[in-house]
Specification:
The structure holds two protein chains of two kinds. Chain A is mainly α. Helix content of chain A is about 60%, strand content about 0%. The longest helix of chain A is centred in the first third of the chain and has 26 residues. The chains are: A mainly alpha, B alpha+beta. Chain B: It is found in: Cell membrane.
């Protein structure tokens, strides 16, 4: 029984954290361009190291 | 304007403007990098971000960097770009996002409550069970309050107008079950239905999210195709300079400088110059008309040959296009009478469910079970009959089908379009741009000598007349090099003329009038005629025959002259009506509807807009004007007409699957309702029954994945 006092809040917290992360991702348009994200990996950033810094 | 720009330059932080461009030709990571870097280096650009999925570029820039400059900057990078106005279709995108958030919350609640419920089902008793019920309540109540809003709102709306829809039994079921579960929890009763309620909300929301996503995806695809008729114009300022002005900011009495090849952004009168204008957007006729000083020109038409100055007489909502828009609005009104399949089912289903639950309550009261026990059984009936599978039955099938169609190049705007498409039993086709490609192709260029070809190309390549462009494309494809000509001039309505090897040469209007498109090439005194035809789409004949076999006889309804329509109708072997104005097309559709026919209209032009809106269901080719694309229920992007027949077939199969899904959902109810009426449904049984029936329905819908092959 005493384990439940810890485990249930932990489970709830993790669920809420996941939910909060999903909300954050939606607000920040993370799902707007799924195909583009796949292609962007291939872009070579070295040519212009200073101009392509993106805020994460 | 200019003064404020100079002031603004001094301030470090300025207001930015956002513009969007459609760049359909980007294909790879290299294109993304090239566009983003190329635009980023441009002075005045703050950020440039490519959205590869929608093939669009969003640019944040200073106000003095206008949209046309950005467009040419993208063109210099090697990409063809089109300016996108604020997309009128994307306004209700927020709806899906709200639903998706509600779905996420419901999913979170469902998983956590399930976690607690499983322990209760597996034998937790006493204090543990009460604690778990209380915890479930704690999670469930905010989740229900948040995620249930779409249903409560829609049910409240229906009840206000004394109607009932699918959301009324859902809302009543949710509220009653929640209230009863709270009472059970407070009195340490054996069963709480929180898991069932939240699961119900989760499954129902999945259906709605699917529905919304399908709509958004198709609309986004269509908005990427939309070509703005005229996002703005170069307006002559008081000081004699010209400045790019957006269409919405153009006012009467302004003077527009319209270059050859540009679309007009407003109605007006020509005050300087003369030129040929392409009225095909309005009339459907491909032959350009000559307009001189003092003549009226209309927004949406294209200036073909020479630059002109146009004094604006009407702009924005007052242009002649707005008449057509009004006609479209009126024509579109009656379409809203179409009742979607799910709502038609709800019309019978909702009262039946309510009566059943009420009867269960009364029956058990009479049997002497007590208020509490009877209420519990009534709620179990409501939950178990809640149209969980029904809510998924329609959208799941429609989403899978529209995805299959999208892979074949048909964008269906929403599920109701598929329902209406399946019911269509007549087809009306427009001619120009629908049955034909909408672009003339020269027939007899092969008969020309090499010199003649070279001269023709030299003359044609400097003109924006559709005939010249068609000749140019054909000759370029044959790798002909243009001849060296001097003194190249273009006379509006007459054609191009120049000097070649000291002989006068010209390409222009043929002397003898002819119904078909033609031009004549004159070298010295030798006259050669070049004829052009607007080719019928490949396999148009086969597509029309296939549609006929599907029970949809076709007829042609065109704004073009009888001479132009006749040959096409003969070749396709269908009946035709020529010289139809937009209102005639609407009347023709109205007559057929009065006879009980469900008309499928296929058209592309602005002049088809009202007819597309008036028809039971409508499809436009991807080359259509944006009015056509917005009025139509679906857009196909290929050159062939076959996708139309395919869409009808897929739509019919979809409705068949929807009916199967209904049968499955009802079959499940037939099994589950007696259990509920007998008072045997525990939360465990409700949970299993609900998820199994939903999975079966979704699985059945997935069979449509390959339906468009």
């Amino acid at each position: 029984m005493s384990g439940l006092a810890i485990l249930i809040p932990v489970a709830l917290f993790m669920g809420l954290a996941g939910l909060a992360f999903f909300f954050w991702a939606m607000r920040n348009d993370q799902f707007e361009d799924l195909e583009g994200a796949a292609h962007r990996v291939l872009i070579d950033d070295d040519e212009k190291p200073d101009s392509d810094d993106r805020e994460v | 304007m200019n003064a404020t720009v100079a002031l603004d330059d001094l301030e470090p932080v300025r207001q930015c403007e956002d513009s969007r461009f459609a760049v359909p030709t980007m294909r790879c990571a290299g294109c993304i990098a090239k566009i983003e870097r190329g635009l980023g280096e441009l002075p005045g650009v703050v950020t440039a971000r490519v959205n590869f999925s929608t093939k669009q570029v969003a640019v944040s820039h200073t106000p003095e960097l206008t949209e046309d400059k950005l467009k040419s900057a993208i063109a210099e990078l090697g990409f063809e770009a089109q300016i996108l106005a604020d997309n009128p279709l994307s306004e209700d995108r927020g709806d899906t996002r709200r639903l998706l958030r509600a779905l996420a919350v419901a999913g979170f609640g469902m998983m956590n409550i399930m976690l607690l419920s499983v322990s209760v089902w597996s034998g937790a008793v006493g204090v543990t069970k009460d604690l778990f019920h209380w915890l479930s309540a704690l999670i469930a109540i905010p989740v229900i309050a948040y995620s249930g809003r779409p249903f409560f709102a829609s049910a409240a709306m229906a009840l206000r107008y004394l109607r009932t829809n699918m959301d009324v039994p859902i809302s009543i079921g949710i509220l009653l079950a929640t209230g009863l579960s709270l009472y059970e929890t407070a009195t340490s009763g054996p069963h709480a239905y929180f898991d069932g309620v939240v699961m119900l909300i989760f499954f129902l929301l999945s259906g709605r999210v699917l529905d919304g996503m399908m709509r958004d995806r198709a609309r986004e695809g269509i908005s990427a195709l939309l070509r703005q008729t005229a996002p703005g114009a170069m307006v002559i300022q008081p000081d004699g300079t010209t400045a790019w002005t957006k269409a919405t900011d153009i006012r009467p009495n302004m003077v527009m400088q319209v270059a050859a090849g540009e679309n007009l952004a407003a109605d007006g009168v020509i005050i300087e110059g003369s030129s040929g204008f392409d009225f095909s957007m309005l009339t459907g006729e491909s032959d350009p008309r000559l307009r001189q000083k003092g003549d009226d020109v209309l927004a949406g038409t294209t200036n073909l040959t020479a630059p002109v100055r146009v004094q604006v007489t009407a702009a924005g909502q007052d242009t002649s296009i707005s008449d057509i828009a009004r006609l479209m609005d009126e024509a579109g009104q009656h379409r809203s009478f179409h009742v979607r399949v799910a709502d038609r089912a709800a019309r019978y289903y909702a009262p039946a469910v309510h009566c059943l639950a009420l009867l269960a309550f009364i029956g058990w009261m009479l049997a002497g079970a007590g208020v509490h026990q009877s209420l519990l059984i009534a709620v179990a009936v409501l939950i178990i009959t809640c149209p969980c599978a029904l809510g998924l039955a329609v959208p799941a099938a429609q989403v899978v089908a529209s995805g299959a169609l999208m892979r074949k190049g048909v964008l269906v705007k929403d599920g109701s379009a598929l329902e209406r498409l399946a019911e269509a039993d007549r087809i009306i086709l427009d001619k120009t741009g629908t049955v034909t490609m909408g672009q003339p192709v020269p027939d007899n260029l092969d008969q020309l000598s090499d010199d003649q070809k070279a001269v023709t190309l030299a003359l044609a390549q400097s003109s924006r007349h559709p005939v010249s462009k068609a000749i140019c494309t054909t000759l370029n494809a044959k790798n002909i090099a243009p001849a060296d000509v001097e003194d190249l001039t273009e006379t509006a309505g007459e054609g191009m003329s120049a000097i070649w090897n000291d002989q006068p040469v010209s390409l222009g209007r043929p002397e003898k009038g002819n119904a078909s498109l033609a031009t004549q090439l004159v070298i010295a005194n030798e006259i050669t005629h070049i004829t052009l035809t607007d080719a019928i789409r490949p396999d148009a004949h086969a597509a029309i025959r296939e549609l006929d076999e599907l029970g949809l006889p076709a007829s042609l309804l065109s704004g073009d002259s009888l001479e132009a329509v006749g040959p096409v109708a003969r070749e396709l072997g269908i009946i035709a009506q020529a010289c139809a104005r937009p209102e005639d097309k609407v009347h023709a559709i109205g007559r057929l509807s009065d006879q009980g026919h469900k008309v499928l209209m296929i058209g592309d032009g602005l002049n088809d807009g009202p007819a597309l809106a008036a028809a039971h269901v409508s499809i436009a080719p991807g080359s259509a004007s944006d009015v056509g694309q917005q009025a139509a229920d679906a857009v196909f992007t290929s050159d062939s007409l076959m996708p139309v027949a395919l869409s009808v077939k897929v739509a019919r199969r979809t409705m068949q699957t929807v009916r199967q899904n209904f049968a499955l959902a009802i079959g499940y109810n037939i099994l589950a309702v007696p259990l509920a009426l007998a008072g045997l449904v525990t939360p465990l049984i409700a949970a299993i029954a609900m998820s199994t029936s939903s999975l079966i329905v979704v699985g059945n819908a997935l069979r449509l994945y390959g339906s468009a092959k």
